[in-house]
Write a structure and sequence with these properties.
Blueprint lengths: L1 E3 L9 E2 L1 E5 L2 E2 L5 E6 L19 E7 L2 E2 L28 E3 H4 L5 E9 L11 E2 L3 E6 L3 H13 L5 H12 L6 H10 L5 H10 L5 H14 L1
Parallel strand pairs: 2-10, 4-11
Antiparallel strand pairs: 1-3, 3-5, 5-8, 6-7, 6-9, 9-10, 9-11
Helix pairs in contact: 3-5, 4-6
């Protein structure tokens, strides 16, 4: 059952409820959902960069300390409306990939989701959740292998779920060679968001391996 909790933020900030479906394991995808409340049109991905979450901010605490978010990498074009979404039609609503933003090992964490206004000046957030506590369980080699095989065997056929769910989930499989091969295949997708998310995912693999596999892929195609 999903873990969720009511918000207790001040009335000056609009509140909404978040959830993470349990169980979650270290080394597997962790998706956080805006489960209820005034969420707006949150449709990930916002640009062709897996780590870009638009005008949303996810904060994570562990043992009472805020964790540092992984840097936004890649060379995707981030121009245009900061809060606008370029996700293909059919992309899932109201979910963001926490595993792309933070590297979480087994343990207990808390997360808070803030929806910010598109302004260069500091302003009050448009909406904010309460802190949600969740558990990340220890992964086993057998469980990880079963998850990777199942994910690769059930790739969706539509661009929306490829860019907004499947490819970001597959990032958690890095540096598995099968995941790298799959990302290279989607570099040739006609939809620019699908190919862009696949390209940004290559940052998660050792670059010498990426260069070798990319050269082989280019020769094949």
């Amino acid at each position: 059952a999903p873990q969720s909790q009511p918000t207790t933020e001040p009335t000056s900030v609009t509140a909404f409820t978040i959830a993470i479906d349990q169980p979650v394991y270290a080394g597997q995808p962790i998706w956080i959902r805006a489960a209820d409340g005034p969420r707006g049109n949150i449709r990930y991905p916002f640009h062709a960069e897996a780590g870009d979450i638009g005008c949303n901010r996810l904060e994570v605490r562990h043992n009472g300390a805020l964790l540092e978010q992984l840097p936004l990498r890649g060379t995707a074009d981030l121009s245009g409306l900061l809060c606008g979404s370029a996700a293909p039609q059919g992309s899932p609503l109201y979910q963001l990939p926490l595993h792309v933003l933070y590297s979480l090992k087994a343990g207990t964490y808390s997360v808070r989701w803030t929806i910010e206004a598109p302004s260069p000046q500091p302003v009050a957030p448009k909406a904010q959740s309460a802190w949600l506590t969740f558990e990340v369980l220890q992964e086993t080699p057998d469980r990880r292998e079963a998850w990777i095989k199942n994910l690769l065997a059930n790739a969706p056929g539509d661009d929306g779920h490829l860019a907004g769910d499947f490819l970001p989930s597959l990032i958690a499989a890095a540096p598995d060679a099968r995941a790298l091969s799959s990302f290279l295949t989607y570099l040739y997708a006609e939809n620019p968001m699908v190919s862009g998310i696949a390209a940004s995912a290559l940052e998660e693999f050792p670059q010498p391996e990426v260069l070798r596999a990319t050269a082989e892929s280019l020769e094949t195609h």
